[in-house]
Design a protein that fits this description.
The complex is a heterodimer of chains A (about 280) and B (about 130).
Chain A lengths: L3 H4 L2 H4 L2 H9 L1 H18 L9 E5 L5 H8 L3 E6 L2 H9 L5 E4 L13 E7 L15 H15 E11 L4 H13 L3 E7 L8 E7 L21 H26 L3 H13 L20
Parallel strand pairs in A: 1-2, 1-4, 2-3, 4-5
Antiparallel strand pairs in A: 5-7, 6-7
Chain B lengths: L2 H6 L15 E9 L6 H7 L5 H10 L16 H12 L1 E9 L6 E5 L2 E2 L5 H9 L1
Antiparallel strand pairs in B: 1-2, 2-3, 3-4
The chains are: A alpha/beta (about 280), B alpha+beta (about 130).
Family (chain A): Belongs to the class I-like SAM-binding methyltransferase superfamily. BUD23/WBSCR22 family.
Protein name (chain A): 18S rRNA (Guanine-N(7))-methyltransferase
Keywords (chain A): Cytoplasm, Methyltransferase, Nucleus, S-adenosyl-L-methionine, Transferase
């Protein structure tokens, strides 16, 4: 899998072209919405609660924000890419967005937000994009600031794509050091495609970790991602069929003549054509 | 940027910790939205508001609102409606925000405040 954070820093990678994808590509929108819905579910906001104030970290074009708006809450989003935010403004999202590097912390007063969600953003913090960047320090600033802007009893659900176990450890350790309790939750741990990492963080202590989805592997097939696997399997099967059809035509007279021509053109030494070339042999005794 | 967001914001340079708000608003272009009054939201947000910030906005945009917090009542629907429309319906499109403590200016363009800090400003933070 290609990792965008290896290509360029976020404010450069999510340029005009890449940002437009986020408003037009239905597949991207679907995946982002699914993850945002799951993150919102993990926040476990009681159904009666309405009109809360949530923070969207790395909001991008506001796809995840729409999920919050639909649930009847207000949100403020931060992102480092100007182009992504322009897309968000064009889409007329309900929340407010601002340009901010989350590695510098959040520009809010303490205790402002009842919860926070983040979709595929915090792995960007693990890379040093500029000479003065120090990933550990930036993660520390990020979590410390996040802890401050959340109300006591607030929750943060951060979905991310870790590159390796060292990154997971760096992120989780940094969060716990800043006073959060909670831990990592992995949905569909046995599937390479549907597997999703969520960092579930609480500012208070008396919280129960929610349970992961698809741990026993049985539920997994309900996921959209796996439908896609089935589909690609079908495709592969079809490809196999056409290939075997190709091998049926294999070694007919036409095929042999073609091959001899090709090889002659390549300058190889080829036997002359005769009336016996490519002719069926008689029955064997 | 809605006034609600402005009310929550603060300057994050280290020397401004705890005193970098309310940010001073300069506004050259604004729009007025028409959002439905949301009682639950207004009630939830009320304890989190910074009244110094509200006072400033109320003066700046000439929207009269009861500023004496001892006289507020969450049963008074008229008051809540004014508060809600002040917070959610007024949107700054172009302008700037100034930190009252360090005088740093954050520009607002197309409704997006640019809160990025420069390298030297972060470095300043680390040193202190």
């Amino acid at each position: 899998m290609s990792r965008p954070e290896h290509i360029a820093p976020p404010e450069i990678f999510y340029d005009d072209v890449e940002s437009k994808k986020y408003s037009s590509n239905s597949r991207i929108i679907e995946i982002q919405t699914k993850m945002a819905e799951r993150a919102y579910e993990l926040l476990a906001i009681p159904e009666t609660a309405e009109g809360l104030m949530l923070l969207d970290i790395g909001c991008g074009s506001g796809i995840s924000g729409d999920v919050i708006s639909d649930a009847g809450h207000h949100w403020i989003g931060c992102d480092i890419s100007q182009h992504m935010l322009d897309v968000a403004i064009d889409r007329e999202v309900e929340g407010d967005v601002m340009l901010r590097d989350i590695g510098q912390g959040f520009p809010f007063r303490a205790g402002t937000f009842d919860g926070a969600i983040s979709i595929s953003a915090i792995q960007w913090l693990c890379n040093a994009e500029k000479s003065h960047h120090n990933p550990r320090k930036r993660l520390h600033t990020f979590f410390q600031s996040l802890f401050n802007v959340l109300t006591r009893g607030g929750k943060a659900i951060l979905q991310f794509y870790p590159e390796n176990s060292a990154q997971i450890e760096m992120i989780t350790a940094s969060a716990l050091r800043c006073g959060f309790s909670g831990g990592l939750l992995i949905d569909f741990p046995n599937s390479s495609k549907a597997k999703k990492y969520f960092l579930v963080l609480f500012t208070g202590n008396n919280n129960i970790m929610p349970s992961a989805k698809g741990v026993d592997g049985a539920e997994e097939y309900e996921e959209e991602d796996d439908n896609e696997v089935k589909y690609s399997n079908r495709k592969r099967d079809r490809r196999r069929v056409t290939k075997s059809k190709g091998s049926a035509q294999h070694k007919t007279k036409d095929w042999i003549m073609n091959k001899k021509d090709r090889q002659r053109k390549q300058g190889r030494e080829i036997k002359n054509d005769s009336k016996f070339s490519g002719r069926k042999r008689g029955p064997k005794f | 940027m809605k006034i609600l967001t402005h009310n929550m914001m603060a300057c994050t340079k280290k020397q401004c910790m705890g005193k970098g708000f309310p940010l001073k608003v300069e506004c050259t272009e604004q729009i007025v939205l028409e959002q439905e009054f949301n009682y639950e939201f207004t009630k939830n947000i009320y304890p989190k508001l910074d009244w110094a910030g509200i006072a400033e906005i109320s003066k700046k945009f000439n929207i009269p609102i009861q500023l004496d917090t001892t006289k507020h009542s969450l049963e008074d629907e008229e008051f809540l409606k004014t508060l809600h429309s002040l917070l959610c319906n007024l949107k700054v499109i172009t302008g700037s925000l100034t930190c009252p403590n360090c005088q740093r200016v954050y520009p607002i363009d197309k409704g997006i405040p640019n809160m990025l800090l420069r390298e030297d400003e972060i470095y300043q933070d680390i040193k202190e």
